[in-house]
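Please go through the sequence line and C-alpha cell line underneath and see whether the fold suits the sequence. See right below:
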Amino acid sequence: MNDFRDARMLVTGASGKLGTAVLNELAKGGAKNVMAGSRDPARITASAAQKVRLDFDDAASMEAAFRGVDRLLIISTDALDEPGKRGRQHRAAVEAAARAGVGHILYTSMTNPGPESLIPFAPDHRSTEVAIGATGLPHTILRNNWYHDNLLFSLPQLLASGQWFTSAGAGRVGYVARSDCAAAAAGALLTKGGSATHDITGPAALTVEEVAAVVNAAFGKSIKVVQVSDDDLAAGMRAPRFPNR
C-alpha cells in the first residue's frame, strides 16, 4: 500500500470537498511529501506539506506547480458555466503535466464517459482520458459514480413536499460516498502499479423508487415518486414551483 509515501505528490482542486478528503486520507496513509494546489491557496483547509497556487487557466502556475512531481492527481474542475471549458482546462493541465515530466497522472473521471453517454459533460471526461492516454505517461483513471452526498441538496424539499418528480424511469445509479472516492484516490496515489482504469461505484445500482424507499424508511416518511417527461421535468425546474399533478 505505502510504496509511495515518500514520493512528491500534488493534489489539484485541494480547496474542494473531494480534494480536502483526499489530502486527509493521504495524511492518514503516511504520505510525507504532499502539495495541495488551488486557485486560492488560502481556502485550503486540509493539512499538507505545501500549499501552491494552481490555476488550469494559467500556464505559468501549472509549470511551476508540476515541476518535480512524481504523482499528480487531477481532480476534475467545476467549470460547467461554459460548454467545453472544463474539457479545455483538463487538457491544458494534462499537457502541462506531460511537459513537466510528471511521473504518473491520476484523474477523477465519471462512469461510462463514452460517446453513447447522454450526460452533457461526458465529453469533458472522455476527451481528458484520451489526452492522458496520448501522453504515453503511466496513468490511473478513477471513474467515480454519482455521489450520494448530492442527494442531501434535494432531500429537504422532497421530505417537505412528499413528492419526487423525476424523468429517470427505470434508470439506475450506483451511488457512492464522496469519502469512498477520496479513499480510492489516496490509495491509488500511494499504491504501485501501471496504467489502469477503475470504476469507483457503490454496492448496488438503484432506481429513484428504491432510493425513495430508503429515504422513507430512514425518516418515517412516504415520499411518492412521480415519473414525468424530460420536458416537463425541465419546465418544472425552471418554474418557481413544480405544478401539482
